[in-house]
Amino acid sequence: MKAFKISAKWIVAIVAVVALIVIAANCVTVVKPGHTGVVVTLGKVNSNVLQEGLHFKAPFVQAVVMIDNRISKLEVETEAFSKDLQTVETTLAINYRVDTAKSYSIYKNIGKDYETVLVTPAVNEVLKAITAKYTAEESVTNRSLISEGLVTALNEKLNEIGLYVTDVNIINFDFSEAYITAIEEKQVAQQQLLKAETEKQTAITNAEAEAEATRIKAEAEAAANKALTESLTPELIEYNKIQKWDGKLPQVTGGNAIVDLTVE
User: DSSP label at 45?
Assistant: First the structure.
């Protein structure tokens, strides 16, 4: 009987130690780096959030919900229509974070599923509005402008709630097969037109160059002839006659007789 009483005391002691350990474990909580702790007391959300580190709380009465305040990545696949009514299937990668000061209000009003409830619908709405401003072809060539517009518009919708979008990357734009074929045909036609225009300009340039060469040659010949004409003075003409004379006087023909005027 005595042995039984000793064993019972040990059992009570062990139970007490375990209870103390459980109570002690429920008296403290650790908030991990990059997180805030939202304290819930008997179902009521407290406005004071816990920052990183070790904190005490009322055991079994208070619970601490961890909110990740680090930059999170969300990938969204959505469909929109361009300005020229083409279907644009878009894949976006959105980087966003939760404001530490508003962790409690986000959890209180929305819960932990704020990404599905707020961020994704906002991305779909904003993308549809921005895509409608550009034609399908412009959407491809203006990716950076669309990304910047998405960041600005999303922050306008979400900042007041406590969500901040830091970056939006357009991973891909997809169009219908018919539209892609039309674009390819347009590019081929543009290339052929450019080739024809280049050949035309080359032919015009060659013709102009040939005409210019002919004009320059004609002007040079005219200038040479003018210079030669201006150099032929009466004295020079007389001198050339004398230089070319062979010493014989011209013969005069009268009737049937030929008179030789050559001086012996």
Answer: E
